[in-house]
TrEMBL record, chain A:
The chain crosses the membrane at residues 233-256. GO terms for biological process: negative regulation of signal transduction. Belongs to the RGS7BP/RGS9BP family. The keyword Membrane applies. Keywords: Membrane, Signal transduction inhibitor, Transmembrane, Transmembrane helix. PANTHER family: R-SEVEN BINDING PROTEIN (R7BP) HOMOLOG. This is Regulator of G-protein signaling 9-binding protein. The lineage of its organism: Eukaryota, Metazoa, Chordata, Craniata, Vertebrata.
Automatic annotation (TrEMBL), chain B:
This is Regulator of G protein signaling 11. Keywords: Signal transduction inhibitor. GO terms for cellular component: cytoplasm; neuron projection; plasma membrane. One of its GO terms (molecular function) is GTPase activator activity. GO terms for biological process: G protein-coupled receptor signaling pathway; intracellular signal transduction; negative regulation of signal transduction; regulation of G protein-coupled receptor signaling pathway. The keyword Nucleotide-binding does not apply. SMART domains: DEP, G_gamma, GGL, RGS.
Amino acid sequence: MPLVNNKVGDDCTVGTDKALADGKALVDSLIKVVACYRHLASCVGSCTDSLQLRDELRQTREKAQNLAVSICQHLTSHLRDKSLPEEQRKEMELLWVAFSSGLELLHVDMCKVFSMGDIFSLANSASLVQTGLQGGGSEVAARALSLPDLNQARAPEAGLESQERSTMEQEISQIDHMIDDMEMKVNVLRWMVEPHGPQYADPLSSTDSASLALLSVDEEQPGHQPQSQHSHMVVFVVLFAVVLVATTLSVCVVFFS
Amino acid sequence: MEKVIVAMQDPDMGMKMRNQRLLITVIPHAMTGRDVIDWLIQKYNICEEEALHVGGMLVRYGYIYPLKEPRSLVLRADETPYRFQTPYFWTSTRWPASELDYAIYLAKKNIRKQGELMEYEKERYSLLHKRINHTWDFVVMQAREQLRASKQRRKADRIVLECQEQAYWLINRPPVRSLTLHYSLTLCVCVCVCVCVCTCVFCLCLQIESCRRALGRNRVKSSICLEGFVKFSEQYQNHDPIMQGCLPSNPWISDDTAHWTMNSEIVPVPTRLRVERWSFSFMELLNDPIGRREFMTYLEKEFSAENLCFWQACEDIRHGESSKIIQKVEDVYKNFLAPGAARWVNIDSKTMDKTLEGIKHPHRFVMDDAQLHIYFLMKKDSYPRYLKSDLYKNMLAKAIVPQETKKSVFPFMRRQRHSSPSPAQAVTQVTEEDGRAMGAGKAGTNSAFSLFIVSSLTESKPELTFSLLQHFFLFPSVALISNPLSRM
């Protein structure tokens, strides 16, 4: 009898553990998609704006929305379950907070893209702002959609712009409603949620950070460059002097022995 | 400004673009300050100074950002390179820069290179960490993902994107500059650091201005304020219908409107309390119609009635219809101010000149200075003499003191003088005893709230405070029943 009970208990926790892992994976992918969407959104209105970019934006947005809907259902169903054990509930609440923040960012980005699409219509490409960007965002979109390579054969059609705008309006209001609903249905006390990570995050892998750091040195602190060059020069001179001394000594040794 | 920027993009008539060269990478779409100014001059036919101003605004509001020294947001009319900001980062009040965004940006900057955050950025970072702690995991993960997404682009694009974001945040969260003024600016700096929602450099300047103004404001010590308050409450103690009860009876309770009829505006014989109030302040006398009439009679005896007439006329102008102002000002001038007028008032020359100047363009408040002058004249001169005069004393003697209505025959129906059996009654004896014991003298009256404050401020009398706290709630309802107490 006790064995059977334990089994039942294990199954329960295993179930919620799996649910937690699922939720975490979903939220992670939503964060990734939101980051990519923001990245693409910052190119709207600039010289790299094109039908392709808009199409990529649309695809990323749809993916984000599907993810959002599924996470919403998943989390609300679990958080409204009263029998959830305490640690699981804490983890769920963390996920919930992350989800709502991600949704906020997505909502703001969508509104911005919507209004900028209004101002910078692709028909008048002469008015696009020349910001210095050269490449497109296809790789970013590919990353968002988790595809190895974006299917270039699907050329976007012109004339879908107006349709796209009305769908966008609907989507924005849908996200609005989702946010409201969530607040209504699930009562998460934000001040009780404690994050796991430290205040200062560890840097990314060394190669990434090094290359980006170099760029920032290039751009932001040109003053420092002559200084480092100066130190390089000093090192060279010292080495050269040492080599010179060594050769003269060896010559002397050879000469006098 | 946005239209200007869009006009600059025109491929034929727009800005001349150059390339920015950084070691190996070449980034297009850079322009020099000189280019910007020349284009503005040519396009809008303005002078160089104006072009400099407009260009400076473009930089200050973030539509163009400098490439060499990103923290100095000025437009230099030389070879310093600038670039356009992407529309996503244009200043907009519809989507203000949120704390979450700023936290993500700082986290990104920190992850990219440890220790790259400046001092003020580190402070803000820890502040944000405290404030939006619950979503910190999200912040760090989002920062990482954004960095990974940007890795997908080529190097030149990455540099441009970083510069754009940096410029955006330099405008929306400007660095706190250390200035050399003293108290007001340390205050401002504290305010800026603590309240992370500062917007542009302009707001800092505005804050500095308002702090300076606040320092220069006139202040009155709170003890002096409260002494005045105590004196006022003592003086009006007996005139307060809630504290003293109203005679003959409280109309709200007894349904007898005798109190109101006796105290109405024009009455053949005023009540004693009312006449006593005339001696409290000049404004009390003037606000009471009977008092004003009496005062006028007195002044006529003294042959200085024109002062009061002038004052009344000025009040009429101030509070009367706008359409009649000009006419009224004319009349006043003719009757009171013109040389050789029938009732010429004695005003000093400076005020007279100013008023005469103002009459040329009459408005509601032209007579204010003259009116004030005459008011003080009457207050200092005629008013004290009136209070000592026989006229006033007779009035006081004649004034009636209404009898309290007798309690009705039925034992069950008690007509109460007070609105409720107030704790004021019960505690009066206690406080009077204490007051006498402590030698506080006049402080043992029922002005509860003021006493509470004064006692805690001047001498600490903890025994009094508890009993006086009970008075606290009576005081605000002072002016409920009778005429409102006029100002001191």
